[in-house]
Amino acid sequence: MARTKDSGHTVRAIGRRSFLAAVGALPLALAACSGDEQAVPAVTPRADAFPVTMRHAFGSTTIDAPPTRVVVLGALEADTCAALGLGPVGMPQGDQSPWLQVALNDISAPAPSYFNDGRGVPVSEIEKLEPDLILSLTNTLSKANYDALSGLAPVVVPEATAEDGDWRSAVTVIGRALGRQDAATELVRKTETSMKDAVRDYAALKGTSVIYLRASSVAGADVRVFAQASNPMQLAEEFGSVAAPCLQVVKAEGKSYTDPTAQPSFIWPHERALELSADIMVIALGAVDMTDYRATGKVPGLPRFGNGQPYFITGNETLAMESGTPLSMAWASRNLVPELAKAAYLSGQK
Q: Is 22 helix (H, G, I), strand (E, B) or coil?
């Protein structure tokens, strides 16, 4: 269906003095992407940690000795291993990030081998890495894939009762599998502290409604709206915001995004974009659309959304919002919280 053209989505202007006065009252953002506050120095596995039996959705897995060659099937697993002092030997190519690279450098770990998992689990490539443990806490494995990987090494998957987006539980499980339970507990504590510290001086964020979208200026492109259980929305709630009421309508009337490996989200018709409102509307754009926005303050062709202050992101910002790992959340705490606070301020001025 063709979409009626509009003049583009324009960010509300604010007087230079008013903006500088508002931002001047806010703490400066820590712009560095370093993960050194989160990365844990090399840790010796506990002597009494093995053998350990991990119960999960497919039964149980026993790990007899401290693993040293770990293959991970997701960003959360990769970041957590690195933060606990053990670099993975293999991981999906799409899960690379600057904060992971910093963490690997901090522990002097070599770069992992990267594989493409876009067309399923590459069992033959993983076999060549000679793993002694495979972690798949966020990648939804079929029973057939689990059985195939189990022929290579012990495989740890989520418990049947595990909740989507429960990063704390996942970190705890990974810590047990690596024999680094104490370090995992400390990692959770540090991550929580970094998020609390980041918002301490931004009272405007508390209670603000948030919605997280992926949008495109491509003609007729619908909007992808992320569910409350998704990593971006969970992160926003960690920062003190609340899910926008319109998410209930989207959940009831939107079409579920069908990729089982993706974050829970919905496809929303572009012609109903005006029904999407929130104090802060975090909108993830592609590189071309972000170039237009940075050059003109507009993204021609985007659908017109409802009331709220848009905050456009791309690249590492999008990755940080959607990853849901201890390292990505620490990066977001340093770099995105001040920007979200600005959006909250602007929204309050409307």
A: helix
* Size (the chain), residues: 350
CB 113 within 8 A of CB 133: no
Query: Is the CB of residue 159 less than 8 Å from the CB of residue 68?
Result: no
Name the DSSP class of 129: T
Long-range CB pairs of 247-253, under 8 A, 24+ apart, other chains included: 247/211, 249/275, 250/225, 250/276, 251/227
- 267 three-class SS: strand
How many beta carbons lie within 10 A of that of residue 61, not counting itself? 20
Helix axes 231-238, 326-335, angle to 10 degrees: 60
Q: Are 8 and 301 in contact (CB under 8 A)?
A: yes
> What tokens were used for 79?
């970041």
Tokens of 20: 């500088």
- Per-residue pLDDT band for 165 (boundaries 50, 70, 90) equals low
Please give the single-letter amino acid code of residue 327: L
DSSP letters, 48-64, are: T--SEEEEETTEEEEE-
Q: Tokens 């953002």, residue?
A: 29
What would the DSSP string read from start to end of 285-301? Answer: --HHHHHHHHHHSEETT
Q: What is the DSSP string of 163-197?
A: PTT-HHHHHHHHHHHHT-HHHHHHHHHHHHHHHHH
Per-residue pLDDT tens digits for 260-316: 778 899 999 999 999 999 999 999 999 999 999 999 998 989 999 999 999 999 999
